[in-house]
Design a protein that fits this description.
This protein has about 120 residues and is mainly α. About 75% of the residues lie in helices and about 0% in strands.
Length: about 120
């Protein structure tokens, strides 16, 4: 992006700035989660919610993958549920995430929990 087009983009209104800020925020969250700093991200999200922020589908997806990478399958399933609620049921979990969660429930002998978890 050239300097001229950047200036035009910034003059185009606050919606463009909000989009850029959200994109930077999502990228920061992803980087922290990939580094295993899920607790730090939880703190940032809690702070954002306290000032009126509303985590979107992508935010919950990042949480879900981060929790799965850290072996926190039940917490990942909670993030997955929030992801579905926020997306209005348009979202579908990744095959890898879903398989990991179902395998965990199968090993725990708790597939009945799926019905309880996903009925809302």
């Amino acid at each position: 992006m050239t300097l001229k087009s950047q200036k035009r983009f910034l003059r185009s209104g606050s919606s463009g700035i909000i989009f850029v800020m959200e994109t930077l925020f999502q990228t920061s969250l992803l980087m922290l989660i990939q580094e295993g700093l899920v607790e730090r991200v939880e703190t940032l999200i809690d702070r954002a919610i306290s000032i009126g922020g509303d985590p979107n589908t992508k935010t919950w997806y990042h949480f879900e993958t981060g929790y799965l990478r850290n072996g926190q399958t039940l917490t990942a399933m909670e993030a997955m549920k929030k992801e579905v609620v926020v997306s209005g049921r348009r979202w579908k979990p990744s095959n890898e995430s879903l398989a990991t969660c179902l395998e965990y429930l199968k090993e725990e002998g708790d597939l009945e929990k799926v019905k309880d978890s996903w009925s809302y």
